Amino acid sequence: EIHIKEPIEKEVNPRLLPGELLLCEASTVYKYMQEDGSNRGTYGKLVCTNFKISFLDDDSASDDNEPQFKNKIVGENDITLQCVDQIYGGNTVYDEKKKLLTGQLRKYPEKLIIYCKDLRVFNFCLRYTKEEEVKRIVSGIVHHSQTPKLLKRLFLFSYASAAPNNTDGRNQTVMFETLEDWRDELERTKGNVKYKAVTTNEGYRISEKLPLYFVVPICISEESILKYEGRGIPIWCWSCHNGAALLKMSAFPKEQDDSTSQMQKAFLDGIYKTISKPPYELLKTDDLSSSLPSLQDIQTAYTRFKQLFLIDNSTDFWATDVKWFSLLESTNWLEIIRRVLKKAIEVVECLEIQHTNVLLIEESATDLCCVISSLVQVMMDSYSRTKSGFQSLIQKEWVIGGHGFLDRCNHLHKSEKEEAPVFLLLLNCVWQLVQQYPPAFEFTETYLTVLSDSLYVPIFSTFFFNSQHQRDTNKSGESLKTQSGPFRFLTVWDWSVQFDPKAQAFLNNPLYAEKPKPDKSQRRTARFKHQRQLSLPLTQAKPSTKRGFFREETDHLIKNILGKRIGKFINSSDEPPNSLREFYDSWHSKPVDYHGLLLPRIDGPEIKVWAQRYLRWIPEAQLHGGGTIATAAKILDLMEEVQSLQVKMDEEHSQAVSGGVHSVPMLRNSARLSSLFPFALLQRQSVKPALPTSTWKDLEDEDDLVKRDDEFVDLSGDML
Length: 720
Known about the structure:
Structural class: alpha+beta
Low-confidence stretches: 478-483, 523-575, 656-661, 691-720
Radius of gyration: 27 Å
């Protein structure tokens, strides 16, 4: 039964961005609400443009009751074409099994289900829509969101050619597009003594995969860089306070004839010898293709993982809830996060304790190299934990570093084989650190969630090219405003494009422990005592008796759950070396310096699901008046009160108020908010149904799942 709300009578037109064109539309479309299984919903118009799919109802016409955290580009009922994951069709009368919609359609469905990459699920009923409109809207949505397209067909170019020249609000983010940016970074990390920024690739004469400018050891000659188009050359990422450096290298292809292979091996041996001599530290190489899961394993794990959150209705949610932990572990996603964090800790230990240079090796050095190098810098460099520092890090290691966002996100729908959530893997790992050490980060988990959403908003160039070369070569084109000249792409780091100042306050951590500026009188004496230095105990620390991070990898449960195929990348016999264990245990036995080294806790239970990103659209998972938002609401209220008192004091002393005070959002009625805030407003309470007998029968083969003590954990309380 469908609880019908009368169709809207007044005309509602979509709000179009510059360069956005309306392609097709359908009236009298019924959108189901997701809260319960009662088929309640609202009538409206479904439209498809060259930028988004949008549902317009009578609420779309008014600006009343707008959420505090409103995205100015993508509304609550908007789906960018790049955000569409899969589209299914079904029949509302016979309730037949839903079918995946791709390519040419012979039969048009009465029900349309759109699964989004940000894990929203939209259910539309087309039963009351005119047949011609159904054909146009369904075929239009499938064609424009699922079929392969050319790069220049992306809305990115339409918007850049039509939008006015906005001011560039990069907020002090270093873009690493100039030689000076690289030299400044070398100077900041004290790496300019042993490393140099080179201009060898100007005009991309060496390689189109390398950036215009990059940093190599001073002893590396230009001839060496030119010889194999940059392959086999150690490229600098970052320098530690003790002089040790993190480097990366793209490996030579493995399938080569013997003579070529011997020449390349001799070349590499020469490079290794050169950079292992003084003044350089000893060198440790780490081939990430053999020590970490493959991109295919990562994609498989994430595909399984996201299915847990693409919930159509309450019945589906409660059906999976009773076996949540076994389903979660079987995806292997959290285990991959744990392994990546563990690898980053190993690299940190080499740099910090052993004073050894670490060279990360990967086929292209643009995937897992980016993940590990970024994590190491977040752990070791407090600057990378500020908002501008983290954004500069993403620019340096990912955007300019040549990560193939276009292919890995499959923005053009050309090849699913290349798709892998590598950047999402990094954000998931950083989130583990943010939720374990909140005062150490200037940004919040909401910032990370919004950043993950921005992957699919094609008005920013940041995440829509495979390399700096591809971006530069596609910059030239006809502009509607200037008649000719290069496109002026926006950067995602200008948050004012998506959010007003009040909404941007949710991206900043009010409890960030800002690094104190050293006193001038003490600066000379404290010069040689580096802020990030780690003090180890004089006596040897006893190994921890905890199982988890250092558990035996041959554990029976791990074997059964991960299976032989994925288990191939787990060290199946040896535990981590004693030095790593001592390093990990000794660091965690001491108080945390929020401006020093940070090591994540990675015992089994410590690796959590990023609840805000994955559960925010599921009303059944909410906590009414609770969760982290309840705490944040109280803190923000106190901050607002303190700021107002400060203004009054300044006025009394007739002092001009400086512009440095940031506005904070008003959250007076925090009891009315749910843990889904700020992404979803207060929802209807979902009632948990009685467990059907068939479900218990399904669980009989779950190895006595219900008898395990650790299964009786409040999911929402644990993860939110």
